[in-house]
Amino acid sequence: MNASSPATAFRCFLVRQGDKYPSGAVEQQTVNDLPPGEVLVRVAFSSLNYKDAMAATGDRGVARKLPLAPGIDLAGEVVASTSSHFEPGDSVFATGYELGVTHWGGWSEYARVPADWLMKLPAGMSAKETMTFGTAGLTAAQCVLALVEHGVKPEDGDIVVTGATGGVGSYAIGFLHRLGYRVTAVSGKPEASGWLTELGASSLLGRQEMERDPKPPLLSARWAGAVDTVGGQTLVNILRETSLNGCVAACGMAGGGKLEMTVFPFILRGVTLAGVGTAYCSRARREQVWGLLAGDWKPNDIENGVKTVTLDTVFAEVEKMLQGQHQGRTLIDLRS
């Protein structure tokens, strides 16, 4: 049967509203059940991000339209298209936008996606490799690029990376190490110290040290820059400890969304707080960053720390992530 036929059946992880609470399970659907979009994609790989884990449990702060297939990343092959930019057989991928939030995401063997959200695979990169990076790699690369563009140089001092064992943090360590920076990794998982050192961390700090709440508005300067995936008190402390004219790239708020501090780091030390978001990153910026990821920034051991699961086993990884027990990157293989 033609894959674009409304009768074509496929499997997906679908979150529905129950009698009391939302819940997710693997279901069979048809192409006719998919939301509107110019391009029908047979998905080969997706990935697990913290946002996906929240969506998979029905968190309405993320899964804002039910029923919904989570998955803010997807990569696969075009099956049918009404867009002049894509045709059947094209290898494509998408990260962010409304995927897995209000629009059917990548945890599905088929997805219908707006053409504006799709990109063709970069030269020298496979579908699996784009998902190995996914939103996490795109975010980490943008954070590191923010430091580089701000003028922070390796000789200026250490760069601190928080949430070091997560996807964004671990990629940021690797990119920074590749560019010659000395990196201090912050993690609450001492058992991961060997892996973080292998990635390129020169020194390690416990998470608790960065969560303390000292009273002085400024602390002794010890960071030339930072990639912070945590937010909250951790981000406050990093900003208090950043050196003259340093730059802090912030991209997460697992530790809280409030920033309770003075303006002293900004007006006395000239510190820059660079916010990094990827969901609606411009196409020009995406092309720039994916060019780096497919080229000079692509690690030789790109699958180091990557685990591959199926739709049937992905929820076990969701639970680990929400319990703080997840490490590295997890891909979902959707190939039948």
Automatic annotation (TrEMBL):
GO terms for molecular function: acryloyl-CoA reductase (NADPH) activity. Gene3D superfamilies: Medium-chain alcohol dehydrogenases, catalytic domain (3.90.180.10), NAD(P)-binding Rossmann-like Domain (3.40.50.720). It comes from the Bacteria. CDD domains: MDR_yhdh_yhfp. Its EC number is 1.3.1.84. Keywords: Oxidoreductase. InterPro entries: Acrylyl-CoA_reductase_AcuI (IPR014188), ADH-like_C (IPR013149), ADH-like_N (IPR013154), ER (IPR020843), GroES-like_sf (IPR011032), NAD(P)-bd_dom_sf (IPR036291), Zn-ADH-like_protein (IPR051397). Residues 24-332 form the Enoyl reductase (ER) domain. This is Putative acrylyl-CoA reductase AcuI. It comes from Lignipirellula cremea.
